[in-house]
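Sample intake sheet
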Amino acid sequence: MVSLSAADPAPKTVSIDNLEGSAKLDALIQRVVERQSTLHTLEAEFVQLKESALLLEAVESTGVFLFRAPDLVRWDYRRPDSMVVLFAEDTVTTYHPAQARAQKIKVSQKQRRFVRVLAGTQPLDDLTSHFSITLADPGGQAHYRLTLRPVGNILSKKLLSVEIEVDRKLFLPVIIKYNEADGDRTRYEFKKMVINPEIDDSRFSLELGADVKLETLDASAGIG
């Protein structure tokens, strides 16, 4: 389900399905970029599926995702374990309420781009500078499917590819899958999306109590 706020214009109707090859890919990227430019805030439920050699079986997590342009992102994990991941300015904060512990990591500009890629909030036209992109169109009502492969050394060390499924009507990513260089795979599916809702500033702040053990790291030095 997708919900548009009253102030948000309906997506434009475009016809790209008769195009082929690079012309179709370029037209789709342009349409997604146009839609992303109108996206000021977003709230959605998410389902995360994590696969790793360190895990006996895939782990499914659910929660709520918040975004405010240009790069405020919050993930509230509800099940199976409570966790908050907040990306604000140059800091990523991960908070585990049950263990009363948190970690704050300061990241560089290049690392911020990687965090935005993981959050699915990096503008698609910017990604063309860092990834080679191919398009598959199953047709019908199925999502457009983009496969992105990193071309730079920094991203290549972390990611093998990113698979993005774009809703045919909304022209926004609704499924994102990350295939990491170490073999781990993480898939996010966004549901019940509400576009451009009013989101209070307090939801992008994270107050840690005095009893919370906080670890602070600076990963930005010497990386750019």
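Comment: The helical segments are 21-37, 109-119, 124-127, 153-156. The mean pLDDT is 85.
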